[in-house]
């Protein structure tokens, strides 16, 4: 999904830490003196910290089982310039090397898994071949199981089942030959050799799940056998961030209810250790600290789910928000360990389950997150990555190069042109931001696609300038734009979402662009479609603004030239990242009647094509004007 610095390394970095917390050793029985619903969240302050929790005293010898977990890979096969915390990180061949080293060290006492969005919203090298390359690579990484993510539904449930079971689509197996573990290849897509789980996704009124709700893994220690059960889920709001056709005929149930039902079934099977692998998560709260966790998940979706879980579910592997955290959540006398491994294969979670070998019960758990380093040098502005060959899995690297080479012709295809440079800006309105917002409005304006009247774009999602004079490897002419260049501008592959919002909510949203306003952690200027104009104060806000200070930043707001009143309602388009409150814009959560749409890159490409033969003009920066 990324060829440039990832969103979490820049616009999301402020959300990736929470207040400083100590390494935690939280006994299960030690909590409960406060109110019944009191919640304590704690965790790490650096990547070198270990977060652990003790559930009970072991009565017999113990053994450790390791869960090697990642999430939100999104088909990022290449390392490109992906980075995190000052490290060049990620790339399938590098993730595979780290995984295989740990798998070899732990032997049969490990399970490799991911928490959704392994595919979908992927870079060209994977997306062009229906994400089959990422599945093949995951097979070679020895992945055992996974929860589905919302992006696994981008192409519909039938395609997801093909990804699981294998076989060629009607267009044929265009990704052939496909590498197999034994060094051989096949011309038929082999499907995922790991098991996808979807406990809260049902296909009919009987509660039949699209994919298995659970799976178990058996281990042996001291001559005794015990099982660890795994429950896989996706966020219940998936229909609001996926195109309607992608989830047609499916019901996405409450996560906690489905997990509790699955845990009860596992218990009847004699499984005493249920682990929830869920594609839902949280963000860290301001004030942030590097990799902190204190208050990290407070008020988040994953916290709300965790507080309602069966007490037997004490370990949660989460994802979706692309955040990195290792925390404990304690409420009602139950402490749970919860992890997330950022995104794009840049971080790997190593979760240790300590098991009483006689009873088969979980007596402790710990987590360590490792950066998937891929370079000999540190990352930084305008720094070129120097690959570290010692950290590459050559088997997986060969597969990656196969698809990078095969995707090059499309990357170099000219799809349109621009009349001048379209650039980003660190603050304020930008020409490229204007064009992207206009493209998203055009894609969702038809009545059957959202009936949108205005569109917003987060500035952190615009990853590169689109320069008329730039010449890529395709050798295109001045002003011409290749698909690869367009993809570099919007590499996240987010889906468009259209919601109904009031005039009052739009005003509150615009006020939320400043640090300290509505919980915002930093100044961010939303990019807006040409249908929206508003007045903005030039007066700097105090360090700790009051609600009145924030309100004073915005003057008259107009949509399609008409002054917006508080009670007016409008159909508003944003990407799915913003739709769930990303970048601190929580007001988007207040929108109603959500309808999923196309991916943002598709709307951008269509907009460029529609401007032929003259090309997209450089817009005048007059959508945000000074407040009198």
Tell me what the structure shows.
The protein is α/β, with parallel strands linked by helices. The chain has 2 domains: 18-69 and 113-120 and 144-341 and 348-369, Purple Acid Phosphatase, chain A, domain 2, CATH 3.60.21; 413-626, Alpha-Beta Complex (5'-nucleotidase,  domain 2). Helix content is 21%, strand content 26%. It has 14 helices and 32 strands. It has a 7-stranded mixed β-sheet. Strands 2-20-19-3-6-7-10 form a 7-stranded mixed β-sheet, covered by helices on one side. Strands 26-23-30-25-31 form a 5-stranded mixed β-sheet. Strand 28 (554-559) and strand 29 form a beta hairpin. Helix 1 (92-106) runs antiparallel to helix 8, helix 3 (132-140) packs antiparallel against helix 8 (394-411) and helix 9 (431-444) crosses helix 14. The longest helix has 18 residues, at 394-411. Mean pLDDT is 89; it is low at 1-36.
């Amino acid at each position: 999904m990324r060829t440039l610095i990832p969103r979490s390394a820049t616009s999301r970095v402020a959300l990736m830490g929470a207040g400083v917390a100590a390494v935690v050793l939280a006994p299960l029985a030690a909590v409960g003196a406060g109110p019944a619903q009191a919640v304590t969240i704690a965790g790490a302050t650096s990547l070198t910290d270990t977060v652990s929790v003790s559930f009970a005293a072991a009565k017999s010898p113990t053994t450790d089982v390791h869960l090697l977990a990642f999430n939100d890979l999104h088909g990022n096969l290449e390392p490109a310039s992906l980075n995190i915390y000052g490290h060049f990180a990620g790339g399938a061949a590098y993730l595979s090397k780290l995984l295989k080293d740990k798998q070899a060290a732990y032997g049969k006492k490990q399970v490799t898994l991911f928490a959704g969005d392994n595919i979908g919203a992927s870079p060209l090298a994977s997306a062009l071949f229906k994400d089959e390359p990422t599945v093949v690579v995951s097979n070679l990484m020895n992945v055992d199981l996974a929860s589905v993510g919302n992006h696994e539904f981008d192409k519909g449930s039938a395609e997801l089942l093909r990804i699981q079971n294998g076989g060629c689509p009607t267009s044929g197996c265009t990704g052939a030959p496909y590498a197999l573990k034994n060094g051989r290849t096949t011309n038929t897509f082999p499907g995922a050799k790991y098991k996808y789980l979807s406990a809260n996704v049902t296909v009919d009124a009987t509660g039949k799940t699209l994919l298995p709700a659970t799976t178990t893994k058996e281990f042996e220690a001291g001559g005794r056998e015990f099982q660890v059960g795994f429950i896989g889920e996706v966020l219940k709001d998936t229909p609001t961030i996926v195109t309607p056709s992608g989830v047609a005929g499916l019901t996405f149930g409450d996560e906690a209810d489905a997990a509790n039902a699955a845990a009860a079934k596992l218990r009847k099977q004699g499984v005493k250790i249920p682990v929830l692998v869920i594609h839902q998560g949280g963000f860290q709260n301001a004030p942030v600290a590097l990799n902190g966790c204190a208050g990290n998940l407070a008020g988040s979706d994953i916290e709300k789910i965790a507080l309602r879980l069966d007490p037997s579910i004490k370990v949660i592997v989460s994802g979706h928000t692309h955040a990195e955290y290792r925390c404990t959540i304690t409420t009602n006398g139950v402490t749970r360990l919860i992890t997330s491994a950022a995104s794009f294969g840049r971080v790997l979670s190593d979760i240790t389950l300590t098991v009483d070998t006689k009873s088969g019960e979980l007596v402790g758990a710990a987590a360590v997150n490792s950066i998937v380093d891929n370079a000999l040098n540190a990352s930084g502005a305008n720094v070129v990555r120097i690959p570290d060959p010692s950290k590459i899995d050559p088997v997986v690297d060969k597969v990656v190069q196969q698809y990078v080479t095969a995707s090059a012709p499309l990357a170099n295809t000219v799809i349109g042109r621009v009349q001048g440079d379209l650039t980003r800006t660190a603050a304020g309105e930008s020409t490229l931001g204007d064009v992207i917002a206009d493209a998203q409005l055009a894609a969702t304006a038809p009545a059957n696609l959202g009936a949108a009247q205005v569109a917003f774009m987060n500035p952190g999602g615009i990853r590169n300038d689109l320069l008329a004079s730039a010449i890529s490897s395709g050798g295109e002419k001045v002003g011409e734009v290749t698909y690869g260049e367009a993809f570099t501008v919007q590499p996240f592959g987010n889906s468009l979402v259209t919601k109904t919002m009031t005039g009052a909510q739009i005003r509150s949203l615009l006020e939320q662009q400043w640090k300290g306003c509505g919980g915002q952690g930093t100044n961010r200027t939303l990019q807006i479609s040409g249908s929206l104009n508003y007045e903005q104060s030039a007066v700097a806000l105090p360090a700790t603004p009051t609600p009145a200070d924030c309100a004073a930043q915005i003057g008259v707001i107009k949509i399609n030239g008409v002054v917006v009143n508080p009670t007016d309602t409008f159909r508003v388009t944003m990407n799915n990242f913003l739709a769930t409150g990303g970048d601190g814009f929580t007001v988007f959560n207040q929108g109603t009647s959500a309808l999923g749409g196309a991916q943002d890159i598709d709307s951008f490409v269509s907009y460029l094509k529609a401007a032929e033969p003259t090309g997209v003009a450089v817009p005048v920066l007059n959508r945000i004007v000074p407040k009198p």
